[in-house]
Write a structure and sequence with these properties.
Helix content is 0%, strand content 52%. It has no helices and eleven strands. Strands 2, 4, 5, 6, 9, 10 and 11 form a seven-stranded mixed β-sheet that branches. The model has no long low-confidence stretch (mean pLDDT 95).
Length: 124
């Protein structure tokens, strides 16, 4: 198993930046492809971005492409999400997720492990 703990959320003005972290413990972090998802109040959880086990390949939802960057440090067992040019519509609880295997996944149902989430609020 792997345990995931997100941090770095908070309140920021539109146009600002935040960096989320997801610390992983348990089995070998580099064995897992990782992703970020988010859920706004009253809405379904949605895919944000994903990364392969090595960090060599990434994939982004159109809504965040060019503004968000996913990365990972396998030596530190940590996943990151750099969020720039934030918009009020980015307000949500952000979750990191892990699935054993090499390739990234874009559907939440494909992930086996989830963090507890961190709140991101963007004011206008």
């Amino acid at each position: 198993q792997v345990q995931l703990v997100e941090s770095g959320g908070g309140l920021v003005q539109a146009g600002g930046s935040l960096r989320l972290s997801c610390a992983a413990s348990g089995r070998t972090f580099s064995s897992y492809a990782m992703g970020w998802f988010r859920q706004a109040p009253g809405k379904e959880r949605e895919f944000v971005t994903a990364i392969t086990w090595s960090g060599g390949n990434t994939y982004y939802a159109d809504s965040v492409k060019g503004r968000f960057t996913i990365s990972r440090d396998n030596a530190k067992h940590t996943l990151y999400l750099q969020m720039n040019s934030l918009k009020p519509e980015d307000t949500a609880v952000y979750y990191c997720a892990a699935v054993e295997g090499l390739g990234y996944r874009i559907y939440g149902s494909e992930y086996d492990y989830w963090g507890q989430g961190t709140q991101v609020t963007v004011s206008s």
